[in-house]
Amino acid sequence: MLKEERFRLILDRLVHDQKVYLAGLSTLLNVSEDTIRRDIKELAEQGLLKSVRGGAVPHSPGPHRFKDRILHDTEQKQIIAKKALEFLKDDQVVIFDGGTSAVLVAQLLPKDVHLTVVTNSFPVATLLEEHEHVEVLFAGGRLLKNSFVTIGNDTIQFLKKFRADICLLGICSIHAELGVTSPNFEESEVKRVMIESSKEIIALATVEKLETAEAYYVCPTDRLSVIITDQLAEDEAFKVYTELGIKMA
Amino acid sequence: MLKEERFRLILDRLVHDQKVYLAGLSTLLNVSEDTIRRDIKELAEQGLLKSVRGGAVPHSPGPHRFKDRILHDTEQKQIIAKKALEFLKDDQVVIFDGGTSAVLVAQLLPKDVHLTVVTNSFPVATLLEEHEHVEVLFAGGRLLKNSFVTIGNDTIQFLKKFRADICLLGICSIHAELGVTSPNFEESEVKRVMIESSKEIIALATVEKLETAEAYYVCPTDRLSVIITDQLAEDEAFKVYTELGIKMA
DNA sequence: GTAAGTTTTGCAATATCCTGCAATATTTAT
DNA sequence: ATAAATATTGCAGGATATTGCAAAACTTAC
């Protein structure tokens, strides 16, 4: 069997299944795992797939690269994202935060809305690239490893230029008294500027984020206009926020 | 048996089976494997198939929609990208242009190099995101539809801050007298700033780009340090550039 | 931490490829 | 038609590539 036959089969399975395992290919093709491993390495060098531990996954630049991480997003966040869409009106200027929640909103955004989107998130930008009526303004800066967002002074200076209608803010922790907090200093700084640059703040938070706190302060709770969660129970926690004048959705 | 008969049969089997083996053809046609090998070599030179170890496969495989439509992922550009890698040394500051050629370089970049990369290209940034020792500085700005790069004043102002060692510049057109040109005004402006901000310019251009011109001027030809092409024929065009003090690779 | 699984590296066995050469077939020039 | 030039073919060898194995280094999950 030619090496190229193996290549083709590997790539075909990859297109079909979105993943391949070393062990499976080894038995299927009757060669050692080492050989498959070397094949995958070679294909990866050509940029035709991405080698990962135990196998390989498709690898093409553009939006598809983010599919993996979006996949293990929960139903909760889907619910939140759908609710968030209702707050976006045509011709608004919207700041998209870099978190996964905001990415989901970008993913679900209908193709026909007219928006100006400001973001520091690569997934958001690439997802919106093909929306004909969405102008994307991307905040440059230093690329933060493992999170596909830019941070740093350049990012902040860029964001300061805007006066957006809405900011979609992914929330790590929120507490009625301690306010919104984040576990990463530089991200917290960026979030703070996003908030300063927006009239209304839409917070996206799964219920377990409510009434928790992290190390770095972002903004007081009453700066938020709306908190969108996946459940709408009428429990104590909700009353606290409602009394602060925040709309729960 | 005529050589041409063998050729026909080899190509027929190739269309039918998507592969041929040296051994199989040898017994089938009653000639030595060496003869088949030479036949295949000759057919490969005519571009009618691709010679591989142990046999041959079709030159442009049928159901291989895997090749990106974003990247015109031709062998030419692969060759160019590989050559370009040799110019990148550890601890340099490198500006990556947004074109497909530069993306391929990013794709092929080994994981262990230490670099600071400045770019306005989303694919370049996301590809390098997982390189542990590559710091990515992304130029913000307006996202240009259908090309995954940022453009505009913000992009330009960001790029102006740097004094890079090298700029990897994808070339649309180059002409010894008319210089480097581009078909898109805003992209040409960005390229111009990238050049201003770099000491050495490495131009990435397939041979058919040589001695052609487009509407928007980027820089004079002798501003380039190296032109990397997929072929290194010693023809007239090359001499022109060499006489300008440009290294051809 | 440990243990299980995975990747990397070096190595040896095998297969394939390239080169030069000699024998034969084919073409060309006279 | 004949000799010389050219092309084709098979073969021997040394060079190169591929493959599987095993030990060591590394990851991951618990």
Automatic annotation (TrEMBL), chains A, B:
Protein name as annotated: DeoR/GlpR transcriptional regulator
All copies of domain HTH deoR-type, residue ranges: 3-58
Organism: Dyadobacter flavalbus
One term of GO molecular function: DNA binding
Tagged with keyword Hydrolase: no
Record keywords, A-Z: DNA-binding, Transcription, Transcription regulation
